Records
---
Amino acid sequence: MNQIDHFLTSDAELAKTHVQRLKFSPKETIYTNEKVHLRNNFVLIKNGIVSLELYHKGKWQFTTFLTPGDCAGIDNFLTPNRTNYNPTKFRLTGAINGEIIIVEKDYFLNHFYANPKLFTIILEKLALHYMYTSYNSHEKNARLCQRMADVTLEFIALSDFQVNENTVIFPYPISAKMFSTYLKAPLSAVSEVLRIWEEKNILICTSDNLLITDYKKLLSFSKMTYLIDEVLV
């Protein structure tokens, strides 16, 4: 990510006009593209973790977490003569402290045409998100406890958290409502699974974080093992 940042700002004068950096804190709304002119921007996560929400059916809905190397606003690259699709309204909220880079779309493209190898950094993260999205779609009729385990492991892998003595600390609370929205599952059913997992000391949900206290047990509920092995080994 530092390579991309350096490349985009190598011309300091141009960068002042076309590139903006924003630091953020937990629970801070960092960026939203609700205003039409902001849909001409591309957002890169330089460091930290952000929560991505999309505006759907009159309300904001949690979609996923974004980590360093991830991006938002990629649908701004669709051209009007190719599709009638309008870019999705989204907003980014800090999960932990970090920084984002906001780049004008055309400025970004002009730079990356000059150094296409740097695209691989972004493409790898996009491919990873696509891989998990495809898997979740395939498993949409699986038992809820499996799907919740799958998603929890997905968030851990995407955030590059390491398993330490069978525990993992996700430094941001993941609520039952977030699971429910992400999986399109009844909130009551999600809450019941979380209650059972807490009783069995598999995880602990607090107002500050999600603590996985028995990673191996959580893994046993999931069928995503082959994806997790590829990412975490």
---
Amino acid sequence: MGGRERRIQINNNLINGPGFVESSPPEEQFASFLIRKIDVTTGLPLAGVTFTLFQGNTEIAIEVTNENGEVRFSNLSPGVYQLEETIGLPGYQETTNLVTITIQSAVEIYMNGVLTNELTLENVPVFQLAFLKVDNETRQPLSRATYTLTDALGTVRTVTSNADGLVDFGVVPPGRYVLVEISSPPGYVDNNVPLEVIVTNDGTITVGQVELSEFVATNERARFEFFVRKLSVDGTRLSDALFELINDLGEVRDVQVSDFDGVARFSNVLPGQYVIREARPPAGFAPIQTDFPVIVKEDGEIIINNVPGDGYPILNEPLQ
């Protein structure tokens, strides 16, 4: 035979001469693929998401993402599979889309029609619209403020702030809304200017062009006015009487002088308890030593010296 060695290949095995077989590496029989789960807004990995792999109605495997947000399915034969997120994470929207995986061979894998053995899936955070209602000066929380939230279809949700001042509409899908305060807390001025609320697909929420994390709703306390009338005992209207309005802490909050019509008017008065004190009588009249109690209620009702309404007459005796 001329001394030449004959090499014969049978089923991927090389036969080198009599009785010697050299094996080549066998083809890989099974496929695997990797799923990576991340937060759509931050790009951070999400651990603890459960995926189930089906073939038809048969459950093939269940895996949970690790600390890197990854999960691998291995030892898969050629065929068509469906991957489903069966248990999501709190704080994220439910994912219902299936991933179709077609395995032609160990190295030919199509995921949703794309040739690849790795796929990154995103989870969208739950969009929760919640904010605080506070006093614009003291920043104390305000309860009993009522808001409506209206979507593009005209559907209205109504929420009232709780004892902590929290206005919580819960989960709000992406879209555009109108937020309106329809009822202010007692003793506060209505703030019923409509605000546009935009919820984007990436989880950003703005209220009146302010990011939700920076948005705080405020109300000013209602302020009221009233007057007393300075008269002589015979009913003559007296000018130039000096009055002080003193709060329950003993602080002088306002000073007014009666005009030609005998009127001393107090404005921008917050609800509370006060006294009116005559600090200077009109010329030619005896001073009054008595203080007159005033109650200004949150609804604006005025009670002076136990008499409802303003215009209470304060009388002076002429000097003898």
